[in-house]
Design goal:
The protein is an alpha/beta fold. Helix content is about 40%, strand content about 15%. The protein folds into two domains: about 80 residues, Rossmann fold (3-Layer(aba) Sandwich); about 130 residues, NAD(P)-binding Rossmann-like Domain (Rossmann fold, 3-Layer(aba) Sandwich), CATH 3.40.50. The protein starts with a strand and ends with a helix.
Amino acid sequence: MTASIISGTEIARQIREELKQEIIELKAKHNLVPGLATVLVGEDPASQSYVGAKEKTSIELGIYSERIDRPEKTTQEELMALVDRLNKDPKIHGILVQLPLPKHLDETEVLYAINPKKDVDGFHPVNVGKLMIGEPDYLPCTPHGIQQLLIRSGVQIEGAEVVVVGRSNIVGKPIANILLQKRPGANATVTVCHTGTRDISFHTKRADILIVAAGRPKAVTADMVKEGVVVIDVGVNRVGKTAEGKAILVGDVDFEGVKEKASAITPVPGGVGPMTITMLMLNTVRAAKLAAGLA
């Protein structure tokens, strides 16, 4: 068996086309333009790249985009005042403060200050709590992207044995909560493995769906999975450069080995990655609709 490829690039393209049409209709029928503000403090190259990609995607979809760059020396008080201004701005429906922040700034205080209705990342405690009880306004972007990859690839989630490797607040915990909810596209039996798990292979070999967000290159190998498993590889690890100087990226799964046993698998790059920004745009559109009483 050689796995079929679950293309995040293609599925993200499909969702963006749907969003583009929805935004056109919101403008035409309700004079409503979804608005997203991205805040970048400092000059971290990776953060600049991420913010640039979010800004570019917003503009392509017809979302009002406000990018706010602040210098490294920005104080906590200045950043909190900026968040407060964006909370009060009716043009802005979603606020994203790019992490990591410079070390002298308190990330938790900043993120908690964002109005939960504008927290399109889905990280505010109010939104985390709503996810836990099955009544979310927004789902966190990467976990929601994973769920959509599964649904749109025709993977049977209900009743499936799902094993998640990794328990981060960004991926592991929220995707486990999303997939165990009693609702369509979920209702699975979910096991979460982590650094304290005694025998990870015992669990991964039982998985019908295996989601790996371990943060280590090729941590899951072919001997750790069963035939026919569906594998979602969240990891992106730089393991060197090509002769041309381009970064070599690998996932948390040994792709070449595991694809010979899996029924379907995401590649790295081109798997989960393209879905994250797309889900951010989806959350921004939903935030605009909630603010206007349309959702």
